[in-house]
């Protein structure tokens, strides 16, 4: 029997929140939804996952638990990723430190960090000029702030298609075919940056792609278009295809990094988080790694001179 799916109105009643808040959670990628025609639906398992992720951590005695020195949650903004979700959950369990995520895309997440509206940004932004990930944007924005950029994972990006690839999608030129329906990511998403860069380098006019203007806010909801037969192809990460039993055609490998912005209030918490990222305990907790490379997990790839001086 198919899993029950709820409307935003029903979810609002379940959580005793407004329907507007439900749509905001979907928009930010905190609650995964899919479309049936023009109507949003949320599966029961997704509601249970969201409830589990937002539970307050239970208090427990832990002899080697670091002192976080702050009653406030750490604010994380930027790109959604399944391993980032795992990181958020594990820090609540192992460090009793609450991270409050807002999944709004790499560019918007980085801008929130720049404006002081978050403490950590999750980013995978390709600079078309240098073909380098993340650092060109960070060098321009963070001149006087104390920051550290920590490598999280490398991810495989490519075409997500139905099992057996029935439309024989092979390259970017296939996206312009009249019999192919595409589903896109929103402007500001790192995946959208990569897609547009590759379309440009292949001399492809986006207006020739059916569905280019049809935007979704996270990898799973985008891939769900393929699993439900509402589109033929999406551009996204391999792990999203694996989650839904879809086929994947690899195109590129990208760098996914965490940017930490230090203040007097969050410095101890962020230091504890970086130490945790670098620990064997966290690395061993990562089990669902299809499409990921964690060889450089926890490596500090850049930090400001101000940060270097304060850590001496």
SSE layout and pairing:
Blueprint: E1 5-6, H1 8-15, H2 19-27, E2 34-36, E3 39-43, H3 44-53, E4 74-78, H4 82-94, E5 99-103, H5 106-114, E6 120-123, E7 126-127, E8 132-133, H6 135-141, E9 146-161, E10 182-185, H7 190-201, E11 215-216, H8 219-227, E12 233-237, H9 238-243, E13 247-262, H10 267-277, H11 280-285, E14 292-293, E15 300-303, H12 305-310
Parallel strand pairs: 4-5, 4-6, 10-11, 10-12
Antiparallel strand pairs: 1-3, 2-3, 6-13, 7-8, 9-12, 9-13, 9-14, 9-15
Helix pairs in contact: 1-2
CATH superfamily membership of the domain at 157-253: Periplasmic binding protein-like II
Name the shape in a single word: globular
Oligomer description = single chain
Radius of gyration: 20 Å
Number of strands: 15
CATH topology of the domain at 157-253: D-Maltodextrin-Binding Protein, domain 2
End-to-end C-alpha gap: 60 Å
Q: Could you tell me the strand content as a percent range? A: 15-25%
Q: On the 0-100 scale, what is the average pLDDT?
A: 88
* Poorly predicted ranges: 57-70, 307-312
Largest sheet: 10 strands, mixed
In the CATH hierarchy, the architecture of the domain at 157-253 is 3-Layer(aba) Sandwich
């Amino acid at each position: 029997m198919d899993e029950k799916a709820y409307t935003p109105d029903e979810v609002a009643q379940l959580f005793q929140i407004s329907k507007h808040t439900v749509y905001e959670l979907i928009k930010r990628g905190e609650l995964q939804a899919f479309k049936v025609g023009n109507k949003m639906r949320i599966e029961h398992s997704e509601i249970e996952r969201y409830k589990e992720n937002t539970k307050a951590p239970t208090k427990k005695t832990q002899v080697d638990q670091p002192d976080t020195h702050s009653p406030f949650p750490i604010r994380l903004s930027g790109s959604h990723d399944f391993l980032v979700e795992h990181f958020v959950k594990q820090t609540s369990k192992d460090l009793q430190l609450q991270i409050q995520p807002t999944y709004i895309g790499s560019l918007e997440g980085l801008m929130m960090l720049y404006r002081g509206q978050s403490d950590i940004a999750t980013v995978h932004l390709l600079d078309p000029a240098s073909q380098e990930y993340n650092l060109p944007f960070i060098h321009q924005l963070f001149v006087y702030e104390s920051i550290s950029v920590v490598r999280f994972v490398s991810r495989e990006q490519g075409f997500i298609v139905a099992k057996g690839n029935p439309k024989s999608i092979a390259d970017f030129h296939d996206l312009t075919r009249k019999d192919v329906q595409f589903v896109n990511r929103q402007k500001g998403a790192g995946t959208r940056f990569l897609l547009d860069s590759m379309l440009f380098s292949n001399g492809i006019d986006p207006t020739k792609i059916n569905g280019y203007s049809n935007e979704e806010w996270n990898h799973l909801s985008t891939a769900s278009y393929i699993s439900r037969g509402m589109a033929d192809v999406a551009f996204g990460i391999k792990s999203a295809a694996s989650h839904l039993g879809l086929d994947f055609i690899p195109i590129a490998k990208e760098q996914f990094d965490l940017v930490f912005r230090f203040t007097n209030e969050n410095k101890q918490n962020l230091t504890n988080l970086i130490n945790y990222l670098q620990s064997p305990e966290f690395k061993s907790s990562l089990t669902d790694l299809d499409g990921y490379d964690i060889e450089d997990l926890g490596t500090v790839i850049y930090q400001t001179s101000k940060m270097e001086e304060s850590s001496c």
